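so i finally got all the pieces together for this one. its two components total, 795 residues if u count the protein bits. some of the lines might not be protein, just check the labels. i wanna see the whole assembly predicted at once instead of chain by chain like last time, that was a mess tbh
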Amino acid sequence: MTAAILTLAALLGSDAPDLDRASSGQPAIGLDEHVGAPLPLATPFVDSSGAAVTLAQYAGTKPIVLVLAYARCAMLCSVVLHATGDALAAGPLVPGRDYTPIVVSLDPRETPDEAARRQATLLERIGRPGDRAAWPYLVGTDANIHAVADALGFHYAWDPRTEQYAHPAAIFVLTPAGRVAEYLRGVQFPALDAAITRAGRGELTPSAARDLVACFHFDPALRRHGARIQLFFRLGAGAVFLGLASTVIGLLVWERRRRRRG
Amino acid sequence: MSEPTAPPPSFWTEPRGVRTWLATTDHKRIAILFFVGTALALMLGGTFALILRVELVVPDHGIVGAHAYDKLFTHHGIVMVWMFMIPAIPGVFGNFLVPLMIGANELAFPRLNRASFWVYATGACITLAALIGGGVDTGWTFYTPYSTTTPTAVAVVCVGVFVLGISSVMTGLNFIVTVHTRRAPSVPWMKLPLFVWTIYATSIILVLATPVLGLSLALVGADHVWHLGLFDPAAGGDPVLFQHLFWFYSHPAVYIMVLPAMGVVSEVVSTFAHNRPASYGGIVVATIGIALVGFFTWGHHMFVAGMSMFDTGMFGALSMFVAVFSAIKMFAWVITFYRGRVVLAAPVLYVFTFLFLFLFGGMTGVAVATSSLDVHWHDTYFIVAHFHFIMVGATLTAYLAALHYWFPKLTGRRYSEVWARRAAVAVALGFVGTFLPQFLLGNAGMPRRYYAYPEEWQWLHVASTCGAGLLALGLGTTLVYLGVALRRGPPSGDDPWQSRGFEWRTPSPPPAVAFSAPPVWERDAYSYEDEVP
């Protein structure tokens, strides 16, 4: 039995933001497909070197592979990023030349330094160590991250109890003009090259299946009884202490009297 | 050594009558009562184990069904842990020897000692009544929320184990006060025999940790009866909290079992090597260190139950710290043997087995304290084999070493050394034969607590069952020749092993009152300097 359960919840037909589990303690997350919708390219971000950038700087001529993740994520973000990196490195297409992969951090607390450290491991994974332009990693304000996420139909939520973002596991392929071309769901992306090629031609491809994998460490235990159990143990500890102390003192006195009597 | 020509009336015969035994406050007689109780528990728990092993000879349904199997492994665990291994060495040898080793005629509270045995007997009867009257299928760990919802007799067993816990606390409290207040003037702290140190350290754990178990089981029992949902996520409870509470006691409980075993080993090694322990101070520090650090390692049972990386790392590192203290003892024993003049007798054979099981079990303990490895081995036979090696194997072999070493002290008679050696070899081979295949099974993925398994693992299960049969044969043989020796064994003399231990400086068996005046022991309990060049 574990209290914290990773919800690899494959929910068929979850097109709407329908993972509303707030009533059971699980944050609402979901993925609306906005295929064809334009991204707010002018939204300002900061890259891993600390420079101010916009998504527009990366759009224009090449398709974009966009990943929303965050460095402190303890669950699937690393899996998604590594799978993206592996898919990028495996195909004939070259990042930077044929398309632009970008990570946008979900976490507004993330600093450019943290971004740079995370980015370094990703660049090593795709065989381009030190080449920051090969896979930019952007951080931004909460409002700006939400602006991009909302345009993608990517619904995520901060869970203060577990101190993590609950969010879908998926990556996005954009046309060179910055429109949403395709959603790739899950944690493995074998069709990434084909999707990039289609997006490069301006094709828009809605998903056939709408399964959703959630990246969230679900903890079902609300711990409503914690305070009561703590009180029970405090009272119990007090009772045990008093019981033992009175036993020792009482017996010592009794034994001493017994000896005196001979 | 002196041959007793006209032995003084021993505690066995004086005073006479069954009632004097049942109402006794003599620590030596209470030790014998504990021996009877714990030996019966060992036989009962062993019988449950044998049925389990016979069931597992075939990959699917054998002699018992799935639910009966669940109950059997639960009963095996409950009987072995709380009725045999926790009380065995402190209750029997602690009771008998601690006063003799510190120059006292009785424990600090003789009546409390008598009560501790009868409370033990009451707790055992309640628990056994529940096991016979319906049984429990939760495993000895009572994990929630299943333990609060199963229709089996959880609440009554919780009451039984709670009462057994009260007995433990009474015993521990008595030993602590005894060591503080009843030492003869010639036995200062740093002249205490090492066995007394381990009983003292164990008593601290018993008094501090057992109430946590009692309170936790009280909550589980109450939850089972009144459906409070204290640990049930569906009712807003946290099942992992129960695991924390349970293991806060139950991991230190391992040291309740193993520390006295280590004390036995220290005594046997020194006596049969005819040599002072290589580092008395080191062993004392390691004893106290294990008792204290043991309180901060419980989390390693929950690496896969939801725990932060920091907690995982800390619990893993602290668990490994126990291995450092254990290694100090291990090296001390080996060096004591190496520099000594070893007499190869049955207790030494058991100590050799102890050392092997303790080393192997301890090293696998370090392995499973590594969280990444634990993910693979968690809840598999690897864990079952690991804790049987370190907890059961070490405790059982030390218990048998103690039984053989101090048998002349307890009875004034000698047993058949030939049969004792044969049985010691059978126990060693049987134990390793039982659990070595289980390490392999666990590593291959066999989960614990399953009564069925894929056919390709059958040969390992059959090997394990053969080992269990050999182990049972060894233990059965021991029962027979010790029973014969008790009736017809030749007189042993007061000190048949030429030990310098304090307990051997009284007649064997001791009279009801061992010391007419506080003894003056000028030489300590390990003064073999005149023997070893």
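Residues 66-102 of chain B form the longest helix (37 residues).
The two ends of chain B are 21 Å apart (CA to CA).
anyway lmk what u think
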